[in-house]
Amino acid sequence: MPTAKPLDGKVVLVTGAGGGIGRAIAIEAARAGASVVVNDLGATLDGQRESSVAAEDAVAQIEKAGGRAVANGDDVSQPDGAQAMVRQATDAFGRLDAVVNNAGILRDGFFHKMTYENFDAVVKVHLYGSFNVSRAAADVMRQQNSGSMIHMTSTSGLIGNLAQANYSAAKLGVAALSKSIALDLKRWNIRSNCIAPFAWSRMTSSIKIDSPEQEERVNRMKEMSPDKIAPVALFLASDEGADTTGQIFAVRNNEIFLISQPRPLRSVHRGEGWTIDSVRDQAIPALRPSYVPLDVSADVFSWDPV
């Protein structure tokens, strides 16, 4: 009798799965027993539509290995597109057990040079895209009384990075969206978690190299395979992950982190209330030792991955 696989009988929708992290998760999901909807718009790094070849190629690779998959070329930034890909999952496989919101684009630039169009486009794909697909999937999962939503956030939003105001805002928004989904849908046994992935992919390949230190950092990132992200994502999609919800993980090569969520660090109280002078003379001196430094992701994750 064949050995049961972790995702036997599950149906998983992975967005942006034509390459990089999404492709690795889709292929590993099929290998773990899931039927997979491979969504990819077939767009350039900045979001310009090209073709659906990448999704179809991933499906062909899955089927060649004996798995089940269908390709989807809808746009996550459009509610109709999200509904169509969820409908394709249920039409093809009868249900939908997990969504991996991985689709993304980059339009980096310093804040004082950023256009409305470049801010809007990135937020539409990352934040609205995660909302659109999750919202469409929620109706199916509520009827099933089960489901798992896995969203890709980033340390660019959780910690900070230069020249990524659009991407950082979207990715921090994704973390808050995930927490709200976890709270609102708990009664239907639907869970929601985030992963901040470190991996070399088409998106990270756009990082600008303007110093020897930056070149060294990029060279380290090239050693981080997208395959390293899949085990955590697929655990969260499996029944074994049923008691994990509302969390933020980071995966960095062979390291898995649980990321903190905003909580009060320190407080001051003054019974008679505050004035500008007392804030200056009493509150700020008491709070200043607990200020969060103006650091970026590389400052926090400063050691070599192992």
Word description of this protein:
The chain has 306 residues and is of the alpha/beta class. The chain has a single domain, classed as NAD(P)-binding Rossmann-like Domain (Rossmann fold, 3-Layer(aba) Sandwich). Helices cover 41% and strands 14% of the residues. The chain is built from ten helices and eight strands. The protein has helices at 20-31, 53-64, 79-93, 116-144, 155-158, 165-184, 212-221, 230-237, 276-287, 297-300; strands at 11-14, 35-39, 68-72, 98-101, 147-152, 190-198, 248-252, 255-258. The chain has an eight-stranded mixed beta sheet, with helices on both faces. Strand 7 and strand 8 (255-258) form a beta hairpin. Helix 3 runs parallel beside helix 4 and helix 4 packs parallel to helix 6. The protein is globular, with a radius of gyration of 21 Å. Belongs to the short-chain dehydrogenases/reductases (SDR) family. This is SDR family oxidoreductase. Residues 10-206 form the Ketoreductase domain. It comes from Paracoccus stylophorae.
